[in-house]
Design a protein that fits this description.
There is one protein chain. By secondary structure, this protein is of the alpha+beta class. The protein has 3 helices and 5 strands, in the order αβαββαββ. The strands form 2 sheets. A 3-stranded antiparallel beta sheet has the order 1-5-4. A two-stranded antiparallel sheet has the order 2-3. The protein starts with a helix and ends with a strand.
Amino acid sequence: MEITEQQIAEWMVEEIRSKGNLHQSDAIDYVKAHFGESFVFVNEKGNPSLSKEVKKAFRKLHKGRIAWDRDGFFWAWT
């Protein structure tokens, strides 16, 4: 079965729903281990990041109910 960006987005929303937040480093580690490294890249600052397509599916799924905390590098319910 092929993994989709939508499945990763659904996992992310469920993690945030159950735990209250999701740290970027935890998300990247989990995505690499369970969904594959193709969904992670190194950004222009040299840091690992989720693919643009994963983030796009995630934003579409949560419809503004989840916010990114730039200082803490995590997502949480708004």
